[in-house]
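Dear colleagues,

For the upcoming journal club I promised to circulate an example of a predicted protein-ligand complex. I picked one with adenosine monophosphate because it came up in last month's discussion. The inputs are reproduced below in full, followed by the predicted structure.
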Amino acid sequence: MPGRLNLVILGKQGAGKGTQCSRLSERYSIPHVSTGDMLRAAVQADSRIGREVASILDSGELVSDKLVIRLVADRFQQPDARSGALLDGFPRTIAQAEALEDMLGDDGIKLCIDLDVPTELATQRLASRRVCQECGSIYNETDVEAISGTCSKCGGDVIQRADDYPDAIRQRLAAYERDTEPLLNFYNTRGLLVRVNGDQSPDDVTVAIQSVISVRGLA
Ligand code: AMP
């Protein structure tokens, strides 16, 4: 069964969830479970699921609740998720949040962080984001890796994600507002929601999240 420290990180695309989750994952030794990364890996592998979702991912729309719920339920069966998980990009709809509660039972979500950034900043960050296709490292368009197109960590190709182009960015932020913002209320009424200002340096954001985790006695 999934275990102790199950944390949901909410926030618009571009809020810095990925960056914070990899840091927190190391700090608390719990896996970073990103449904976006899992779906992109399926597309890369050209698996059956990958072929089913490829065009949806490119458009910035959401894939079906049923598919992602199954993906996350399977992920929770893996041994490393016994100590908990950092959920990034899931849940994204009320139906997914309810399914997550069913999956976790009594040992449920301990905290939901809302990583808050203004829409203009999120848009800017997404448009200038470049990623390594191999290891997932994130760069800015002005970084040498983005300019050369080669990742300094693994030598993989550094590209602009199809859904980081302007039309898809608009679509994704609209989907966030429509489908995911209601989750703020969902977790707030359960006393689990804490807002953290994402418009500060990555180090300051990490410190702010760690202090919430510690003040709540979660780790
Ligand atoms: P992300 O990297 O989290 O922005 O996710 C990239 C894309 O994957 C999204 O635009 C959706 O198409 C899809 N996706 C990721 N997570 C979910 C989810 N929980 N529910 C539905 N679609 C998702």
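Two points we might discuss: The chain has ten helices and eight strands. The chain has one domain: 5-215.

See you all on Thursday,
B. R.
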